[in-house]
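Task: encode each sequence below as structure tokens.

Item 1
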Amino acid sequence: MIAEVGAFMLIGGGIKYIDDAFDEGIYSRKLAVLLAPVILAVWLWVSAGNPHAATLLAAVLLGVIFTGKVDNTVFVLSSVVIVAGMLALAREVLLLPLAVLTAMAVLDEKGNDLADAGRLPPLIALLFTYRMMMKLGVLVLGMAELLPLAYFLVFLAFDLAYEAVGRAGVRFVSQRRALPSAG
């Protein structure tokens, strides 16, 4: 389980790094391109023969595909490799949890866009700013014994790493803006 937590942290943080490198220009695109195959390898390794991990990660991928968030060449190529690799390696995904978690991932993505645009009441915006629907879905599925409850912690590790990389990028940008310009 410790290896899965570490793998999910690497995947979550890596996805955010790549996303912010291409969408926000915060991080190095060259490093993002080099990081992508590492993330792919870890993703496929943790999914191979593990239906719980494969289900969680497939829901994340489907959520971003269905909401049009696969928006750069690295993400498009990575998505193709992940789908092909998961079809070849992940012998099983759990269909009911996959459907529930994919729906929650889509809600999170759409709700996050609305929260970012200031189009939600503050409490609802807070839920979507931190993409709480999929986390709640994992928790409920764990409590219903459709997923091991430990995967709630595994998914939290993914999300904490994602958030940490995002916050580090925001800090980096604000520090860069605070520096006096030369000249």
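Item 2
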Amino acid sequence: MKDCNQCGKCCIKYGDGALSATADEIALWEIFNPEIYAYVKDDEIWFDPATGSKLKQCPFLEIISIEQDGVSRKYSCSIYLDRPEDCRHYPSLITEMIHDECEMIEAADMQNVKRSQQRLDNLMKASRRANYS
């Protein structure tokens, strides 16, 4: 498994409403991060504060570089330390990464999914709750 290259595929794919935030996260944003809370509507995330309409992409995903050919991009999360728990837990499954065309996956990861899943679980240990399964 390669290191994350910040391709943004996961954020682009799931940033259009497939993510949620916990009630606790939303409450903390309301108090400590009003710039994030502004994008919450009816306890759901990523709504345009001006219009109230659902956004098609996470408003905190930023392009940080574009390769000269104009195709490859690197992305960054401007709320990385305060991002929703759903984001902190991704990726959770090798099969999910394969389905999402995650660029961290290598051919060897697909040949032995069980071993790769163990590597991923170890890699993501710091991002997951102690009782995560």
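Check on item 2: The chain is about 35% helix and 10% strand. The chain has one domain: 9-127.
End of task.
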